[in-house]
Amino acid sequence: MSDLRILVSCGTGIATSTLAADKLKRLLKSRGLSVTTASCKAAEVAGKVSTFRPHAIVSTTQVAVKVPIKVFNGLPLISGVGADQLADEIAAYLKTLSAS
Amino acid sequence: MEPIELELTLNGVTMPVLVLWGLTVRSKEELFARVHEELLRRGQVRPSYLEGVQERERQYPTGLDFGDFAVALPHVDFEHVLRPALVVALLSEALPFQAMDDPTRQHLCRLAIFPVLTSGDTQLAFLQAVTCALQQPGFYTRLISLQTPQEISACLQSMLQIAVNEG
To answer: Quick one: closest CA in A to B56, which residue?
Structure first.
């Protein structure tokens, strides 16, 4: 599937989400997936879901709202602890989407 | 130790760094007040910084677990900042910070790094350099064991090199 979109959120949608998105893009690229990311504040996730229509959400903070999209904890992308495992999970999830 | 001022340059952007080493503070509030005082005195932030950083930490806590240790990265919104800086504070005793991904959990942190930024883009590279260096085995242990301004300065300069090599 082309044009896979991932919404990356953090407190303000600027700092940690940008770092997480950079890292995620690199890790997914090495797994053969090219994705488009958008960053937003955790509080804006619901609104962004309807405009950006992400295939998955990666957040470094808790996402308080319920959204019909799978949310991954993005903290490993900042701390490095479990980053490869997270990238494997996200890649596997995205591949299930493109298979269906 | 007296506060140490140094500059780091990455990709042509220079960032002032304020190092507060071996701070004795009993609470986050006391830590934030000390950092605020030092930044305000140097004209880096507006008087609203203190409330800004406290409120931000309440709403979006920044305790980050790196596996063997945890580090706090207290953020603040751009509007409270006049000139960008990075504050590196080593506490003589660890303080509990709520976990970034789960406010019901706490991490004990001896190192707190404050990104005091006025915009995203180029300034974020410094935050990236910090988180990248902290992921390197041994870097944290080496950093917190340092005792002289010369050693600390050299270690922070080497941190940028790690980031460049990794990036």
So the answer is: A11
